[in-house]
Request: fold
Amino acid sequence: MRKIAILSVNHQLAPVAVREKVAFSAHKLSSALKQLNKVQGIEACVILSTCNRSEIYSIVDSNNAQQILSDYLATTHNVAKEKLDPYLVYFEGDDALKHICRVATGLDSLVLGEPQILGQLKDAYHAAKAADTLNKLLEKLFQHAFSTAKKVRTDTQIGSSAVSVAYCAVKLSEKIFADLSQQTVMLIGAGEMIELCAQHLNQKGVKKMIVANRTVENAKKIADLYGAVSISLKQFSSVVHEADIIISSTAASVPIIGKGLIESALKTRKHKPMFMLDIAIPRDIEPEVAQLDDVFLYTVDDLQQVVDNNINNRNKEKTLAEGIVIGENKKFTHWVATLPNEEIIQVYKKNAYQIKQSAVEMALKKLKNGGDAQTIITQLGDQLTNKLLHTPFSNIKQAKAQQLNHCEFCIPKNKAKKS
Reply:
């Protein structure tokens, strides 16, 4: 019997050392999908692979769906199955439906309500579509997950609050500058936090970014990803006046930006406001910089408080989001229940057209041979009526016979008493 089956290795159970072993690289995803789709029992499949999860979404016609999927995952990545088993989570039927919706809405994410996972899920869906490994049921499942995620985003505030320091930094800068795309941003450092800030700023349409770092090569790696300029820290003081936004996160043991430097920069800028964010520990920017009138200086502690408050806000919205998922899943379950009827109708419709085509061809042949038109048309009508009614009449008789056989109040004819 066909069923929705999902196999997951995710951040809730598996450490990064395990997750990286079962990750699917983008350039091998298409071949992996096609290989899986050829496995006996697999009717359709989608593979999602991110830093936090590797998941197989499938339609399976087998009683051993879990074993089929886990064997495939272990074999494909050349990992011993017994080493992988403790980190596998399997979902089937209604549980699978609930899981994909929780993933799409960010309810299952490391950061509750984060929006990136929906885009990643859509990418996985499009990859499967390109590889031709979808069928009607799996296609409908993903469309359902996408529409459910959209409803959760629209009807709740679960994704409206920043819950990472990098994302919060960008949101905070938007309160100072209405249009970030027109601002020049200076990023100091070359670590993960700076790269995340660059990513978020790029998504906001920032066109001019400068990445400064002690080692220019490391700055260039980030700069090249987002069309930014890379410079060394030695060059920083000569261009700092260009920056409307400065975000700093280095490993320096003492502050690298002093009050005097920013004072000079403000004079060159004719006191145009500067937004400065110090997310380094120890701090990169002297606290005295906050005393300057045209500077908005924030530290990582300021942001962390905002992040904590926003996480609490998202948790409050979680219950509402869960309720939406339950309600939308009832609609999908109803659709799945009607699917067999749809398939029967499609088969009957196809057969009916074949019967019509055959009957019409025969009638035309008789007409061509000089047969009486009225007689041929009458015969055609009778033939079509009889053939089209044959299947439903047979089904009705069969259903009635089964009903009589299972009726506990009916007396079989051979056992009926004579009056």
User: Anything to note?
Assistant: The longest helix spans residues 300-368. The longest strand covers residues 2-10.
